[in-house]
Write a structure and sequence with these properties.
Immunoglobulin-like, 25 strands, 2 domains, 5 helices, 11-stranded mixed beta sheet, alpha/beta
Length: about 325
């Protein structure tokens, strides 16, 4: 199950919490309401914008910002505290951290305390509003995508831009991210060295995009070729998963709790790498979670597999299956 789909499983209790915070935020009075776009993607979701658009804006004390979501993210003001982890451990199990996925805090902000929008509910339109009551320079982040940050400057004096201009600037920044990602996707190609092929999983912190595809076209190789998938994306984690004739495992497994939203267990099958180093089209093969070196939890950054038998093999990223992140290897 993808990250974007997991909230569909949360019962009405959690939905009511999200609705409450949205309504409180929407009703907050302010001198001016500003809009920031959160994320974005191309129509086929091959390119994912991992940014706040515009990245920085200046508003008056007492103004309200509404973040309009166009992807699976959160808006978190940490007030200098450490970011909440994506997952927490309970015994031998890992669970999605509620501090990262559900709303927290009231609808005003003075530079202190923790505020979190929570994440979108499936494909429903989602927004989050916050009123700023004290001058200052406030950095915020999406805690699901390391390095995805924004800045709000709150001042008592004059502000040179108007909300319409800020929104237009945000749309232009978002379009630039998607254009840069589209260009990178069009030129995406594996690196071939003899009987070894390297498939990079690409993202760009400065341009603020990730590619949610393994290759632009099916990878055609000879039997006996070793393929190595390597993470070059500062924002995303991925898996490389061949299910063979079996069913693709879900990334999240909900566990019911009395009187509360379910705990979201991260499937150990998805997290755990298999020991197989060769593939003939049969059986389940999985890289486990892959991330850029230095990512939280220090996951490995690459995975290799040698293909021994001709055939057409489809594989997936379990984290982004809803975005159709699949690849094809054709062995001749």
């Amino acid at each position: 199950m993808s990250l974007r789909n997991l909230i569909r499983l949360v019962p009405l209790a959690a939905a009511a919490v999200l609705t409450f915070f949205a309504s409180v935020s929407a009703g907050a009075s302010s001198a001016t309401n500003w809009t920031v776009i959160v994320g974005g993607q191309t129509p086929d979701v091959s390119v994912y914008a991992n940014g706040f658009y515009p990245r920085e804006l200046t508003i008056h004390t007492g103004d309200t910002i509404t973040w309009q979501f166009a992807g699976f993210h959160n808006v978190s003001f940490l007030s200098g505290a450490a970011q909440p982890l994506f997952a927490t451990k309970d015994g031998n199990n890992y669970y999605a951290n509620s501090e990262a996925f559900f709303p927290a805090g009231v609808s005003t902000y003075d530079g202190t305390g923790f505020r979190n929008s929570g994440v979108p509910q499936g494909d429903k339109p989602f927004s989050y509003s916050l009123t700023f009551t004290k001058p200052g320079r406030y950095e915020y982040a999406c805690t699901l995508h390391p390095g995805m940050t924004g800045v709000v400057n709150v001042v008592d004096g004059g502000v040179t831009e108007i909300p319409e201009a800020v929104l237009a600037r945000g749309r232009a920044e978002q379009a630039a991210s998607l254009a840069a990602g589209t260009k990178a996707y069009e030129s995406l190609s594996p690196q071939v060295t003899g009987s070894h092929v390297t498939v990079p999983l690409v993202g760009d912190r400065q341009a603020r995009f990730s590619l949610l595809r393994f290759t632009h076209d099916p990878l055609v190789i000879a039997a006996g070729t070793t393929v190595t998938w390597t993470i070059q994306d500062p924002f995303e984690v991925h898996t490389v998963t061949f299910a063979g004739a079996g069913k693709l495992p879900e990334f999240f497994i909900p566990q019911a709790q009395a009187g509360a939203p379910p705990k979201l267990l991260i499937n150990a099958v998805a997290l755990t790498p298999t020991s197989t180093t060769t593939y003939d089209g049969t059986g389940f093969v999985n890289s486990g979670l892959l991330g850029l070196p230095g990512a939280p939890g220090n996951p490995p950054s690459s995975f290799s597999l040698t293909f021994t038998k001709p055939g057409r093999y489809v594989y997936w990223c379990l984290v982004h299956d809803h975005e159709n992140q699949q690849g094809v290897v054709i062995v001749k």
